[in-house]
Amino acid sequence: MGEVKTPRQWFLWSIALVYVCAFASIYVQIPGLYGDEGILPVRLQIPKVQRPLLEQESLLGLGPSLGLAPQQVLELTCLVGVALALCAVLLEPLRDSLIFFCLRLLYLSLYNVGGDFLRSEWDVLLLEAGLLAVLVAPLGLLRRHSSYRHHDPVSFWLTRWLFFRLTFCTGVSKLASGDPAWYDLSALSHHLENQMSPTPLAWYGHQLPDWLLRFGAAVVLQSEIIVPLVTFFAPIRRLRLFGFYVQLFLQLCYILTGNCSLLNLLSISLSFSLLDDDHFNSNTGPKKKKGQEKKPGGCAQMVSYLMLLVELAVYLFILYCFITLFKLKINWEEKTLSSETNFTPKGFNAFLEVFQELTIWIGVLSFTWEAVSAMLICVCTRGIVSKLWSLIQWAFITAAAAAVFALSVVPYTSMAGMPASKVLPAVRDAYSAVERFQLVGSYGIQHRMTSAKGRPEIILEGSYDGLTWTEMNPMYKPGNVNAVPPIVGPHQPRLEWLMWQAAQEGVDTRPWFTGLLQRLLQGKPEVVGLLQVDGAQYPFSKKPPVFIKAKLYNYHFTDPTKDKTHLQAWWRRQYKREFFPIVNLDDPALTKLLEEAGLKEKFPAQTGSDTPVSQAVSLIREHVKGLSGSLLLSTLLATLVGIFLIKAVFSWVLGGRKPRPVSADLKTRKPKEPSEMAEKSQTTAPSNRGGKKDSNEKKDSDKSPRKRK
Question: What is the pTM of this model?
Answer without folding.
Answer: 0.88
